[in-house]
Write a structure and sequence with these properties.
Largest interface: A-B, 39 and 40 residues
Structural class of chain A: alpha/beta
GO biological process, one term (chains A, B, C, D): methionine biosynthetic process
Domain Semialdehyde dehydrogenase NAD-binding (chains A, B, C, D): 5-130
GO molecular function (chains A, B, C, D): aspartate-semialdehyde dehydrogenase activity; NAD binding; NADP binding; protein dimerization activity
Number of domains of chain A: 2
InterPro entries (chains A, B, C, D): ASADH-related (IPR051823), Asp_semi-ald_DH_pep-lack (IPR005676), NAD(P)-bd_dom_sf (IPR036291), Semialdehyde_DH_NAD-bd (IPR000534), Semialdhyde_DH_dimer_dom (IPR012280)
Number of helices of chain A: 14
Helix content of chain A: 25-40%
Strand content of chain A: 15-25%
Radius of gyration of chain A: 20 Å
CATH superfamily of the largest domain in chain A: Dihydrodipicolinate Reductase, domain 2
Shape of chain A: globular
Number of strands of chain A: 13
Family (chains A, B, C, D): Belongs to the aspartate-semialdehyde dehydrogenase family.
CATH architecture of the largest domain in chain A: 2-Layer Sandwich
Strand order of the largest sheet of chain A: 9-6-10-13-12-11
Oligomer: homotetramer
């Protein structure tokens, strides 16, 4: 089988580097082009990058960085994007209009009802939108989005509880690692030994994006599920790992069997697991019985960062509470994009 | 005026050191005895302590450590206790039975309905219990308790909202600094770059102790207020500062004027402010309009750690949310004990 | 006595804030003007600053920020500068040419033989250069510099050893806190849980500036002392505090009495101590016998950050070794500038 | 080929866990027994361990922990020891006397001239001592030691410079990670945002152990090389990674070609590389040209932690300086032990 050829926008950034690493030795995806900001074009990858992921894969080291212009991505099957949000809109759209399939981590178009927002285990079915996207939009290519890192992580354990959570109120606090703000997002002096109880835009994005991922396709559009949530997002001084404390307010009559919920979460599987896709975790949701878990320093190492760990599941005072943790750079960004491409290939969209 | 003479149990610990420092140059309290664990008795304070608070006050340096036995505390008016919870019960009771007035930070007896649990600005009136405590208990002395550090901090901004919060459900997440577990409570390897979503006993203590502090005196006992709360307590890798995200679930008909609430909190004053007591903050509750506040590295320095900072107050989706921050070693421990003694002196209980 | 009126350039930065705080309630210096970058001119200090030092002094809160132009500093006696190095040269020179006395922390002109580089306890005598500076330079005002933060700290315990260290080789490793790079100098992701074994320019500056401070005035110029040193400067993940491991290579015949050296360091006093200047530490050099000291979290709190702590002094294998620690923001920056002004006032240079 | 069967003492500790992980899927070593402290004997490994290394290898999970007594290690070929130093002496000696081959990380016997202290690339030839160890000691088994973590790391780049460094004075500062003190060695409160300029015993061990490793075998004993060094060891607040600043004081006449030294270090290879042993790094010494390297967060990921990174190599002021960094848990502990066993197997000592 010929490998799928992909190019990568934003390849020298933190998420870009993760993708480069995860694609090295991939069984059926081959990274053939790396792109970066104008000042780096033409340079060797090795020279242009401040690499932080161990050793640069041999085959990427000497690649010359290309531009984001369509002509530089002619001979690839898919363009992956790890672009910063503020640059993504124009660049990605130009590529899509020029006929490329773009799978992107960046925020623009995430809430567009005709653009699938994919967290593969949750809503691979939404790729169906691609069948009508071109005709509706007049695009020559295709655009697929991945959710915000926190939404990507929190949505996983909410999926098996869809019926419940779309009918109840949710109170959520997220504790988010500094890498979520980008490599240079926060200075050491501002966040070390500190907590900042605010992350711009985050509290609104999470319920919206989760609602879209849990929604239904209708007439070539997504009909979002209604998520009635109040979220508080807090920056904490760790490098990697977003944690969420999710409280679901039960109605008086609700009969919740906590053990049953744990089983449902622990046994949750979806297409990526069934098709045994290379980047798919064997268990997307890991349920912890140890009260002191999940912890970033222990649990992010499991399943190469592609699983989400859940703990402290209990009902008290008519509130179902759980603590969720995931790797914001892998499950929340680089890994979800690659897994999306794997699913698209599996289903014949590429 | 003669100064009040006090002795201090647990004087070499982290909270003990804070008290030693705060009592140095106190206008009417004089620390005349310092006590520590048996192995240190007879040593000079300076030699027995691993001092972490700058310079040891000159007059304490050469004090010889005494035991916790009543005979070693004969000539003091009040015994302050910064003992570890597990040692406090027997030692404090023995002193109370021997006729001492003990004001203590340790957990035993906190929920005893005949023992006042004092956060001065909130419930100095509960000291009234002391009028009947001796006759009811047959003690020769008196026992006064201070709340758990998180309860001490969170209860302050809840006080002006007593009517509301005792009738609504509260969902709370606390992010607690490592010092809350004691100086040697957590190893660097276990909590650096990490989050531990569990603190033993904490989630139960907070609503219980807040409920007692907001309660009423009736027949020489406290009738606790009912707090309907679901709390999740999380350890975060900072040294000092406990933060709470407090969500109050409103009823459909509730009409909440957020600006009015901010004013009530910002203007909150109580006996310690009116009497201008030396350890009292001028403003016990500081309201922040800056969305990124309160932050431990900025806000704990205000009012010498005796005020509580509140921010992100808003109503959305029928939830009143606020973020609360306080210094767990000062407002949550050393300072609250000293302020309690000041109030007792002011009201004639000592 | 009328207070000395000073203005402050760079008043909203990290070092500027320290100066604002240290000048609040100063017995004879009054901060009457605060200056900042063009975009902030005209704004209230309180609104323009991201204040991190507790409470903003009441009298500064409402001051309107002025420019760095001479006409905005007409009615002050001295201009203090906490400007970034790259902006300082032109701005400061313009003020000096316009007749102002400028005392500055910034690097330009530090090594100019006609400009005194003052660490008050070490070389207040160098202020003598001011007597001829105007005639030599044709300036209407005066320019006084303070050393780089690390040089400021390390030079203190080297002063009493001048004779020895100017004749022997020194091998030094410095471990420098992140604040030394400025508030936004290093991102959390780049230095947390990390060490960076390089600080641009630092390894050259330290011996040069120490050599100038230990030099002699001759014909209105400084004749630098020769410092034969090899320095390695390393960035470590702490907020405040620069540490130096100083190894002085002894000659075979050197007879060093370590106890004598400790006494000399511990007893070191200079003009600021003799004149009891308000910002002067009582003991500029604190000698620790405890092998595990000095430590930033313990020792920087002593003497309000104006003393330098020294420990681990010993001779072994014919090497005299000591570990030195100081507060890079106070002794190394804000405090040294204020103390310099105090000395200048005392000696009649202002 | 039958796999070598090994047991592991101290298997639930931090270094023990690293060994368990590194031995999982080893091509010719099979971990068949895990041992731990008495209270854990009989328990399943999975239940007894606080695992921090991702997923526990499947084949170890259910192993029942055994004692350290010889009868529990009968059917293994080699006993690996990750015991704490204070417990190791008696336990290991008992096993050796009972006929076991023990390869140990613990400190007792490290400086014994008849016990090889092996850092494989440096002195695998010292295993020759094993030929006479039994007869000289009357032991039925064999004892092989690995060096202290810092000595293990620093000795690698010193090896190619043996001739020079054994004739010159060395001034060294080490910056050592908290894991070097063990998982519970330092509390968060004591070392976070702090530096402790002292590590008990370390400053003496490093030159002694390096001297032994660079020594020669003579009559069944090691004749140590003379290392004339002055070391200062400092604890810094990072989790993993020991860094050393090594200054070699040159004589006036020394002609050092820095580029030649870089080449020698970069090209250094030894038996483990030649025999392509599974745990051997391809390049034991990595030379960095980037001035800001080596850094723990970047460079420890290379070669799975088995290489040592060197940077900032230069001669100035007649001092040859280099900065060395290695993974204290892998190259400094778990990995060196496993590589030692691989070499012993290769050379027929097992």
């Amino acid at each position: 089988m010929d490998k799928l050829k992909v190019s990568l926008l934003g390849s020298t950034g933190m998420v870009g580097q993760k993708m480069v690493k995860m694609l090295s030795n991939h069984p059926f995806i081959e990274l053939t082009k790396v792109s970066a900001s104008p000042a780096k074009i033409g340079k060797k990858y090795e020279e242009a990058v401040k690499w932080i992921e161990g050793e640069i894969p041999e085959d990427v080291k000497d690649m010359r960085l290309v531009s984001t212009e369509p002509e530089d991505h002619k001979d690839v099957d898919v363009v992956l994007s790890a672009l910063p949000n503020e640059l993504a809109e124009d660049i990605e759209l130009k590529l899509v209009r020029a006929g490329k399939i773009v799978v992107s981590n960046a925020s623009p178009y995430r809430m567009d009802p005709e653009v699938p927002l994919i967290n593969p285990e949750i809503n691979w079915q939404h790729l169906e939108l691609l069948k009508t996207q071109q005709s509706k939009r007049g695009w020559k290519g295709l655009l697929v989005k991945n959710p915000n890192c926190t939404a990507a992580i929190m949505s996983l354990p909410l999926k098996p509880l869809t019926e419940l959570i779309t009918q109840r109120k949710i109170i959520m606090t997220t504790l988010q690692a500094v890498s979520g703000a980008g490599y240079n997002g926060l200075s050491f002096m501002s966040i070390y030994n500190n907590i900042i109880p605010y992350i711009k835009g985050e509290e609104e994005k999470i319920p919206k994006e989760v609602g879209k991922m849990l929604g239904q396709v209708q007439d070539g559009q997504i009909l979002n599920a209604k998520i009635n949530a109040r979220v508080t997002s807090i920056r904490v001084p760790i490098k990697v790992g977003h944690m969420g404390v999710i409280n679901i307010l039960l109605d008086e009559g609700d009969k919740i069997d906590v053990e049953e919920i744990k089983r449902e979460l622990a046994n949750f599987k979806s297409l990526p697991q069934e098709k045994n896709l290379p980047t798919a975790p064997k268990k997307p949701i890991i349920v912890n019985e140890d009260e002191s878990r999940p912890q970033p320093e222990i649990d992010l190492k499991i399943e190469n960062g592609m699983a989400v760990s859940v703990g402290r599941i209990s009902v008290e005072n008519n509130v179902l509470r759980m603590v969720v943790l995931g790797d914001n750079l892998v499950r929340g960004a680089a890994g979800i994009t690659i897994l999306t491409v794997e699913v698209m290939k599996e289903l014949g969209y590429i």
